[in-house]
Amino acid sequence: MSQARKLAAQLGVGTADTLLGASDAHSASARVNPPPQAAEPVRGQAIRWTERRRDIFNFIGFHSLSLVATDGPVSLTLWDPGGHGVRQRIGHNRGLWPAKIVKGSSTRDAATTTWDKNPLMFCGTQVRLWFMRESDCDRAAASIVDLIAERAERDGALEAEAVMRRGFRDLGAELDLALFEMEMHGIARALGIATWDDEGLVRWFDSIGRRVDGLRAERPEIKWEGCERIVAKMAARDVAEIMGTARLR
Questions:
Q1: How far is CA 135 from the centre of its chain?
Q2: Is 179 exposed, middle or buried (0-12, 13-18, 19+ CB in 10 A)?
Q3: Where in the chain are the domains?
Q4: Angle at 228 between CA 223 and CA 229, to 5 degrees
């Protein structure tokens, strides 16, 4: 269980695994509103993408936002060639925690593939949120980028803006990553947008798959390959119920 899930439990709120469990896959009354959902750090391939899960992903067309960051605050010393003198020190009074938001639309963790280039430490996806619509992903991204800018201004080191490159901002050495993840989900929720983490997405996909199987058992003429519209309608109904609305915005 991730720190964010433990925190959610302490606060008395549900998490992604309460979205649609095995026992309530056929019961709309058992579905609950999802609070901020959290995932274990996404290292390369957190989801086991079975053929069916890939099909559902492609039927619906999901988009993602990844918070790309190091595992914690970092500092750096650049020495002169030969190691006889220090050319530059970064983050030595207090470590810098570089982070940025990256969009995606693939089952692969492309954000980590793109940004984990440092030979000395990991820098990749720490948090990933999934969205059903690209427009929702874009709206949430704009607000989360604003949140990052606000935190960088409030908590980042004074030297950070001068040394950060390629769109990274310093979220501050005392960043609580689990709380920040919950804030990201909360921002989306406030915008009326449903989000999932990796674990929640898998559980939801598996629930949809079970319900489609139940329908196909009653109507054998339905083939899985032709279930795209059925899956899309199930997903839309689920999200409408989750968000407490009659229809998707």
A1: 16
A2: middle
A3: 3-242
A4: 110
pLDDT tens digits, one per residue of 33-62: 333 333 344 454 467 889 999 999 999 999
For residue 41, the model assigns a pLDDT of 41
- At 228, the pLDDT band (50, 70, 90 cuts) reads very high
Average pLDDT across the chain, whole number: 83
Q: Cα 17 from chain centroid?
A: 14
- Model's pTM, two decimal places? 0.79
Per-residue pLDDT band for 71 (boundaries 50, 70, 90) equals very high
CA distances to 9, 14, 75 from 78, rounded to whole Å, are 43, 46, 10
The residue type at 72: G
Write a three-state SS string for the chain.
Answer: CCHHHHHHHHCCCCCHHHCCCHHHCCCHHHCCCCCCCCCCCCCCCCCCCCHHHHHHHHHHCCEEEEEEEECCCECEEEECCCCCCEEEEECCCCCECEEEEEEECCCCCHHHHHHCCCCCCCEEEEEEEEECCHHHHHHHHHHHHHHHHHHHHHHCCCCHHHHCCCCCEECCCCCCHHHHHHHHHHHHHHCCCCCECHHHHHHHHHHHHHHHHHHHHHCCCCCHHHCHHHHHHHHHHHHHHHCCCCCCC
With tokens 């990201």, the residue in question is 184
